[in-house]
Amino acid sequence: MIYDNVLDAMGRTPMIRLNHLSEPNAAQILVKYEGINIGGSIKTRTAFQMLAAAEKRGDIGPGTIIVEPTSGNQGIGLALVCAVKGYAAKIIMPDSVSVERRKLVRHYGAEVIIVHDEGDIGKCIAECIATAERMAEEDSRVYIPQQFENVDNLLAHKYHTALEILEDVEGPIHGFCAGIGTGGTISGVGQVLKALYPDVSIWAVEPENAAILSGGGIGTHLQMGIGDGLIPDILDQDIYDDVCVISDEEALETARQLAREEGLMVGVSSGTNVAAARRLARKLGAGKTVVTILPDTGERYFSTELFDE
Ligand code: PMP
After folding, report:
1. What is the pLDDT of residues 212-235, one digit of tens each?
2. Which residue in 22, 32, 41, 43 is the catalytic one?
């Protein structure tokens, strides 16, 4: 099997049963390991879908400059897809994202523009978005995919992530949970699961310090990629049955346990998702199946608290 380019090798990530982090009297937990996807995260899928759809519509073409405000993985995914497709890319990031993310974006040949985070991630993301909009006003070659508003983000998960889950998991899925960044994952996967299994319990997950869906305040936290301090336009607010809040400590500890006990090298939000999945699994009980996502690899967190011993 020879792929024509690296993007053709994207997706079809494995579904793996947790053996040590599942509990005897709880539902089994199955995780979709996006850390070994092309580009190291689930966001290569959405980058590809958003740009391929924009090309089809004629919104972008030779000479287009892709500009995106992002807290990390979406920038890496876009930089990768732009490298393959030959577009220039400029990625606008808060300085609170890990240094690995910046270096990866630059390494794929894109430019990084940093916005200072003064302790309010919501404000900082808003400033990243405003910067991108200013750039688009000043240069007609600029195209902003706008992952928080772009329905192709959601469709990447509806057409691919969700269908791969259904291909791999035989029998009913009783629970699904995912942390909310743009809401693309939970909305896209959730819509497919709800259509097939109307009784499935879907939990939205958010960091304790940015629990905006739960009516909490917005602050900085360590669960990079989720809890951006806004309610995204593409989030389907009817798709989840409950909201689960996870602290930084529990997310970090669960991510470490995933490496040590399951051999899964994952980022902090994977810890968030599995911590929530364990609660959901306890609630649903033995004999049931809970699915969640491990959105990215742990190897882009060397400089962060995840690797503090
Ligand atoms: N975890 C990580 C590490 C991410 O980069 C993202 C994407 N922002 C998410 C979780 C959340 O995914 P979504 O944007 O689909 O809600």
Report:
1. 999 888 888 899 999 988 899 999
2. 43
- Ligand 1 proximity of 94 Cβ (cutoff 6 Å): no
Contact 54, 60 (CB under 8 A): yes
269 is catalytic: yes
Q: Is 188 in the pocket of ligand 1 (CB under 6 A)?
A: no
Q: What are 52-105's pLDDT values in tens digits?
A: 999 999 999 999 999 999 878 999 999 999 999 999 999 999 888 889 999 999
Cα separation, 294 vs 273, whole angstroms: 7
Q: Model-level pTM?
A: 0.96
The reply to whether ligand 1 has any atom less than 6 angstroms from the CB of 269 is: yes
ipTM of the complex: 0.99
270: annotated active-site residue: no
Strand partners, 90: 67, 111
Strand intervals (E) in the chain: 15-17, 28-33, 65-69, 88-94, 111-115, 142-143, 175-179, 201-207, 242-246, 289-294
SS3 130: helix
Query: How far apart, in whole angstroms, are the C-alpha atoms of residue 146 and residue 125?
Result: 12
